[in-house]
Amino acid sequence: MSVLGYSELLKEIYGVSPKSLQHEISILLKAKPSKQRIALLRMLANGKKSTVSELLRKCKMNNTGGSFRVIRKFFDELVSLGILKKENIGRRAYYLFPENSDLGKWLSN
Questions:
Q1: Fewer CB within a 10 Å sphere, N or C end of the chain?
Q2: Is the pTM of this model over 0.90?
């Protein structure tokens, strides 16, 4: 019987490497996330792609006015930091995690 280390557990359970996950979390901390924002990121990680309004409705939060603007600004900041991708389809902006994002894999579990 062998003892598995922290990095082996992360690889086995989530399929992510600890160094890249720590790097993405340190970048995420620059955007000053809150519990509400992390909950929205978790909802985004569980789905394919979504708009800010759809995510707010799924979490049963106010999807208009100041709440919408603050969350959209947060997501745009994550796009500029390289954590999220943004697709403009028509007049809507869809956000998604890149395919190789370890943070997205970790949040989806």
A1: N
A2: no
Alpha helix (H) residue ranges in 14-91: 18-30, 35-46, 52-58, 65-81
What is the amino acid identity at position 93? A
CA dist 109 and 93 (Å) reads 25
pLDDT digits (tens, 9 = 90+) for 12-27: 776 777 777 788 888 8
How far apart (Å, rounded) are the C-alpha atoms in residues 96 and 49? 5
Q: Domains of the chain (ranges plus CATH)?
A: 6-108 (1.10.10.10)
Report d(CA 43, CA 74) in Å as an integer: 15
